[in-house]
Write a structure and sequence with these properties.
Strand order of the largest sheet: 1-2
Subcellular location: Cell membrane
Shape: globular
GO biological process, one term: amino acid transport
CATH architecture: Orthogonal Bundle
Keywords: Amino-acid transport, Cell membrane, Membrane, Transmembrane, Transmembrane helix, Transport
Strand content: 5-15%
Radius of gyration: 23 Å
Distance between the termini: 44 Å
CATH class: Mainly Alpha
GO molecular function, one term: transmembrane transporter activity
InterPro entries: ABC_transp_permease (IPR001851), BCAA_transport_permease (IPR052157)
Length: 343
């Protein structure tokens, strides 16, 4: 039971990232009908928002510390972050330590702007073009964004630590009645799962309970009728593209301590997230979330040593096998609308 529970936790952790990225992808496809292969790059940009803020907060001024000397007896030069000089040692150190959570506030406007510029500057010209054209142009855009990040930040992963309070591991087994040290799980992965649940709930609440969200859902169902009512649905869909970009960016920000950001991390998640969307059902927000967590848990169980010994390499292909089975049995996906991908 402890091994099963540990794999479920691992699956929820992976599934959180899959679900958040797939949720943004589905928002874009459901509102604009665009297959956005640059969505993984938005996840990457979010992670590098955390890297950027960390670098900004650690900008330092060199000062002379008269109380410390080097081996020659000369006063030592000390690099002190500006935030420490401005806010004091304890407050400044806390700000630097909490760089990743603070990056959420930094990433939201950045990702909204990136999303709106991407949609207005490029994607809007491909609304009526075939999906193949959309895939090609957005995949090309993803490569361009990837190379820009590589040029500015280099090719190596950049460690971005979580706050000190959330480093280390939590004895989860004791919480559910197991012996001590039976199930040890990292604090930040639990934080990431809770964060993903909050973002997913917020997106669904926004679409369901706000006037803006209701108009968007109506536009997803019948764009022409909503337009005839005098509502500028295009402007609202552009805003939804920005929101979808922000969701992907926030997923990347909080994932930075789990997997050190690198320029190709967006591509690593891109194919998997599209598989999640297809399995859940193109255009189905609930399907994207359900499939994200389901495939995350299946991938986690397939990574167990006993399973790999029995079926070598199964952990590398389990998601694609499930996708094949689901699409053969139900081409529109688990919760897709009738007629979508069934022609």
């Amino acid at each position: 039971m402890d091994a099963i529970l540990l794999q479920i936790l691992n699956g929820l952790d992976k599934g959180s990232a899959y679900a958040l990225i797939a949720l943004g992808l589905t928002l874009i496809f459901g509102t604009l009908g665009v297959v956005n292969f640059a969505h993984g790059a938005l996840f990457m940009i979010g992670a590098f928002c955390a890297v950027t803020l960390q670098r900004i907060l650690t900008l330092s001024q060199t000062t002379i510390d008269e109380t410390r000397t080097d081996f020659l007896g000369n006063p030592m030069q000390v690099d002190t972050p500006y935030v420490v000089l401005w806010f004091g040692e304890s407050t400044g150190a806390a700000i630097v330590d909490w760089a990743v959570p603070l990056a959420i506030l930094f990433a939201i406007p950045v990702m909204l702007i990136v999303g709106v510029v991407m949609e207005r500057g490029l994607i809007q010209h491909f609304y009526k073009r075939p999906h193949a054209d959309q895939i090609l142009v957005t995949f090309g855009l993803a490569i361009v964004l990837q190379e820009i990040i590589k040029a500015f930040y280099g090719a190596n992963p950049i460690p971005t630590p979580a706050p000190q309070a959330f480093r280390g591991s939590f004895d989860f087994g004791v919480l559910v009645g197991f012996d001590p040290n039976t199930i040890i799980y990292p604090y930040w992965r639990l934080v990431y799962f809770a964060f993903a649940a909050i973002i997913i709930a917020a997106v669904f609440a926004f679409l369901r309970y706000t006037t803006f969200g209701m108009v968007v859902r109506a536009g997803m169902a019948d764009r022409e009728t909503v337009g005839l009512l005098g509502i500028n649905i295009d402007r609202r869909f552009t805003a939804m593209f920005g929101i979808a970009a922000a969701v992907a960016g926030l997923a990347g920000v909080m994932y930075a301590p789990i997997n050190a950001p690198n320029y190709h991390m967006g591509m690593d998640f891109l194919v998997l997230s599209f598989v999640v969307v297809v399995v859940g059902g193109m255009g189905s927000l609930a399907g994207a979330v359900l499939a994200g967590f389901l495939l995350g848990i299946l991938e986690s169980f397939a990574s167990m040593t006993a399973v790999i010994d029995l079926i070598p390499g199964i952990n590398q292909i389990i998601i694609y096998l499930v996708a094949i089975i689901v699409l053969l049995a139900r081409p529109r996906g688990l919760m897709g609308r009738r007629g979508v991908m069934e022609e």
